[in-house]
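Lab channel / #folding
Pinned by the channel admin:
"Please post every new chain as: sequence first, then the structure tokens as a reply. Keep commentary short and put observations after the output so the thread stays searchable."

First post following the new format, from NK:
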Amino acid sequence: MNPESRDRSLGELFSDLARETGTLVRQEVQLAKTEMTVKAKEAGKDAAMIGAGAVIGHIALLALVAGVILALGQLIPLWLSAMFVSALLGIAAFVLVQKGRERLKNISPVPHETVQTLKEDKQWATRQFTS
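Reply from TO:
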């Protein structure tokens, strides 16, 4: 303990501890908000990728239907081009959806930095009460 803290009353020490603890809690809440905002933005981008894959998949289905209609209606090679386009769009949709799902799986919903600093805060508070 430094000499200055020896001259302070117990009430002053508890007052300081309460003020510092309040500040610490507010900072932890702000850190958690910031960390969760970053995670939400990442998840939003990945969800948009899944959505884009779904839209492209829908287009592929429409092209497939058009190809089947043309094939049955005319029985000429024009249907083959529609089938080829729908196959390419289907592959693109599959790749986008799979990539988005994998990226979403890798996002942890736990605010790790906040958890770590809370552990450090607990250690700090324990040292303050035991000193």
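NK: The mean pLDDT is 81.
TO: also worth noting, The radius of gyration is 30 Å.
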